[in-house]
Amino acid sequence: MTAAEITGNPPGSFAWGVLHDRHPRLIAQVRDGLPYPPEIGRALDELAEEITGEIRPLPGWEEYAGRSWYDVPFLWAESCFYRKLLVAVGYFAPGPWQGVDPFEPVKSAELRTPELADDLAAFATRSDEDALLTASLWGNRADLGFRLSAGQADGDGALLVDQSPLLWSLLTDADTVCVVADNSGRELVPDLLLADHLLVTGRAARILLHVKPCPYYVSDALLTDVVAALRRLSESHDAGPRLERAMRDGRLQVRAHPFSCAPWSYHRMPPDLAADFASATVTIMKGDLNYRRLVGDRRWVPTTPFEEVTAYFPGRVAALRTMKCDVAVGIPADAVARLDASGEQWRSNGAHAVIHVR
Ligand SMILES: O=P(O)(O)OC[C@H]1O[C@](O)(CO)[C@@H](O)[C@@H]1O
Q1: Residue from 22, 143, 219 whose mutation best tests the ligand 1 pocket (most atoms within 8 A of CB)
Q2: Rounded to an integer, what distance in angstroms lies between the CA atom of residue 175 and that of residue 163?
Q3: Model ipTM?
Q4: Is-contact 180 286, C-beta < 8 A?
Q5: pLDDT digit string, tens, across residues 91-146
Q6: Is 255 exposed, middle or buried (0-12, 13-18, 19+ CB in 10 A)?
Q7: CA separation (Å) from 240 to 41, 161, 195, 291?
C-alpha cells in the first residue's frame, strides 16, 4: 500500500506555506542572528532569490535541479533548503564561519526562557513516568521552526492515539533503547529526563541517542545542544550530572549519523544505521520530521495502519509526535470524521499528538 508523495503544491497547502512564507522568514532570522560579513549576506540574498524560482544545482543534491521548489517532494525541498542555508553561511567551507550553527542564537535564547525555567521547576516535582513521557511528547510542540508560523504553542493538546502502555511494556529490562531525538531546548530537556529515568529504573541498560550531524530544521538537536541541555539541567536537577556520568561510562551514547540529515525516508537508510535500530529493544522516534521520515512523507489516508507503513523498519519502533504537517496515519476513523468536520487544521496546527508503537 502506498500514497502519493507530498509536494509544495497546490498553492495554499501546508507545504506550500512552508516554502513560500516560512523559508524567507528563516533566512531573515538567520541573517539577523549573527554578524555575518558581506559575502555571507550576499549568499543569503541569493538563496532568498533562488527559493522563488528554480532549484540550482548543488553537489550531492542534483536530483531535482532545474525544477520548481514547489513541484518536487516536500521533504527533499525542505532538506535541500536547510543544506543550502548552511552552505550560504559558510558552515562547511574552511574559514571563520565553518561549523558555526546559524540557529545557535535562537537555541541559546530558548535555554534561558521563563518557559523552560517553568518546565524545569515542574520536572523537579513531577517525577512519575507517565508525566515524563507526556513532557517528552508535548515538548515536541515547542520547536522553533514551527513557532515561526504558528506563534507560541504551549501546553498539552489532544492525544489522538495513546499506545503508551504498550511502549512501557517494551521498556522493561531493555538492553538498548534508541532515542531518535528531534529538537533541542524544551524538547531535548524532557527527552534527557526520560532517558535518565529509563537508566535509573533499569528499564534500559543503555540508551543510544541519535542527534543530527549538522544544523537542520532550525532547532534540531546536535551534540553541542545535548551538552548545553545537560548544563542547563545540571543547574537545577541531579539528572544533569547523572547523565554526564552515563555519557562518560557509555550507558548514554550519542550518535550523529549523516543519514539523519538526508532528504529521504528511513526506507532508504544505510545498513549500519539499520543495524543500530535492529539491535535496540525499541527505537523511539521523536517529533514530526522523524515521523514523516518513518512512515513516508505521503498523502496517506489517515486511517492507514501505523503497523503497516512501518512494517519495513528493523525492530520495534515507537513514535512520539505532535502533528505539525499533513502526514497522518493510524488515526481511528471516528476521530478522523470528527476532526475533518470541525474545520480545524488538525493535521498541522500542533494541537494534536499520537503515541504509536509497532
Ligand atoms: O521539529 P519537528 O517536530 O520535527 O517538526 C518539524 C516540522 O516542521 C516543518 O518543517 C513544518 O512544520 C515540518 O515540515 C516538519 O516536519
Answers
A1: 143
A2: 21
A3: 0.94
A4: yes
A5: 999 999 999 999 999 999 999 999 999 988 888 876 689 999 999 999 988 765 65
A6: middle
A7: 38, 31, 11, 28
357 SS3 class: strand
The answer to whether the peptide bond before residue 105 is cis (omega within 30 degrees of 0) is no
- Report the C-alpha gap between 191 and 212 in whole angstroms: 15
Rounded to 5 degrees, φ, ψ at 160 are: -80, -30
Q: What residues does each domain of the chain span?
A: 14-102, 106-357
Top mutation candidate among 79, 80, 188, 217 for ligand 1, by most atoms within 8 Å of CB: 217
- Architecture of the domain defined by 106-357: 3-Layer(aba) Sandwich (3.40)
Ligand 1 midpoint to CA 17 (Å): 12
Q: pTM of the prediction?
A: 0.95
Whole-number CA gyration radius for the chain: 20
Place of cell 527533499: 76
**CB neighbourhood size of 150 (10 A):** 17
Dist. CA 137 → ligand 1 center (Å): 14
What cell numbers appear for 199 in the block? 537508566
Instruction: Compute the distance from residue 202 Cα to the ligand 1 centre, in Å.
Output: 32
Instruction: Spell out which residues line ligand 1, taking CB within 6 angstroms.
Output: 18, 78, 140, 143, 145-146, 182-183, 217, 287-289, 292, 324-325
- H or E element that contains 356: strand 352-357
Substitution candidate for ligand 1 out of 76, 289, 297, 298 with most atoms within 8 A of CB: 289
Q: Which helix (H) or strand (E) holds 210?
A: strand 204-210
Phi, psi at 123, each rounded to 5°:
-65, -30
Ligand 1: residue whose CA is nearest its atom 5: 288
Give the span between the Cα atoms of 284 and 357, in whole angstroms: 9
| Cα distance between residue 179 and residue 167, in whole Å | 13
Tens-digit pLDDT profile for residues 288-336: 999 999 999 999 999 999 999 999 999 999 999 999 999 999 999 999 9
Q: Give the Å distance between the CA of 217 and the centre of ligand 1.
A: 7
Instruction: Quote the cell numbers at residue 282.
Output: 525499541
